[in-house]
User: What shape does this take?
Amino acid sequence: MKSSSLPPQKGMSKLSLAHWLQRLEQLHPVEVELGLQRCGEVAMRLDLLPLACPVLTVAGTNGKGSTVAVAGAVAEASGLLTGQFTSPHFLRFNERIQVGGQEADDSEIVAAFEQIDAAREGTSLTYFEFATLAALLIFRQRGVDLAILEVGLGGRLDAVNIVDPSVAVITSIDLDHQDWLGDDLDSIGREKAGILRAGIPAVIADPRPPAGLAQAVADSGAEAFYLGEHFGFDESQRGLTIKLQQRCAEQQSLLLSQPLSVLPANACAALQALLLLDIDLTALDIARVVASVRPTGRQQSLEMGGQQLVLDVAHNPGAVDKMIEYMAATDCNKRTIAIFSAMKDKDIRGMISRSLASFDAWFLADQPEQPRAAAAADIAAELHEQGCGMISVSKNLRQAYRRARSLLGEGDRLVVFGSFHTVAAILPLIEKDLRKEQRG
Assistant: This one.
């Protein structure tokens, strides 16, 4: 596809990152266009492929961000300079591209965008494709030892898949993005398996992999390592024992004696992948490193004013199930209140049915700046249909947050969930209130 309205431009160096991002939102006629040809062509013009370092690619429906976070932290602790590419971001675009655990700065992202714009020669790229190529450029310029890439949508046709992985991870599969990936778990699993390559290790971290995924793994010719069969974990009073398997079939065990803020399956998948990349895990204080990983918006718990705040980007029924398990495992002797907003293409009914009994009241909000967001009135109607009567509807998330906070008493819990956009809108409000509290 060629872009006639916004071709590569000269003299773009004066644009700030904010202006560049605004331009990228207008550059391509649609937000999502799956396919590798356009992005791959520009990558070849930039001489980005193949990458000069090992690559860990992570796909799946739930758990990708946590898996990337653990893998990055442990690899860094082992002495490797890692580059991490994730999406979406919460507060700043820079969060998507990190080197050595630090966000790329505005100037190097802008410089990467300029190189991509010059190299594309009229080829139209999406926002995500620009971001992917920028990450690869920055990783090359910084000379990273390991690139960790999170797939944005699906796998087979996602821009990240222009890069051949050294090891691939597929986390748990659930119904999500059905318009793009298919209406059943088998179809979605096959799309995720598109990141696999013949002969490369594939870490399959879904405890119940759909038949379509298992068949696609077999068809790919990848060397498969399945959770529960080749690697896994056991919980006891001592902590979490991680059992890993090397390519030579030799077993290795690690004890994580400190509480984790990520799901054990995701931590386990990250460690199994690093072992397959020949990283010596026995030389590290693994328990301390993994316990230090606290990904934003993934079962993120904060204390403020005698109240517990939980942020979780759970946006499908499977992720909501894990969120409810986390809530059940943490003490709350009083009320639990939800702030909820989701995208209208998600299984909102399923998310509500899984979590309805866990909340004493629901605060809903419109997201005027998000065209994909479901109307709060429609979510309220679904809640009423499922028997919930304690509902507040607000015109935006800021108003919903203020209303919910005014209702909270000491010992109550507030849970924010439903989408990345929801958590991203609430997070700066919480941080502002935390700063006020710290100032006294």
The CA atoms of residues 187 and 212 lie 6 Å apart. The chain has a mean pLDDT of 90. The radius of gyration is 22 Å.
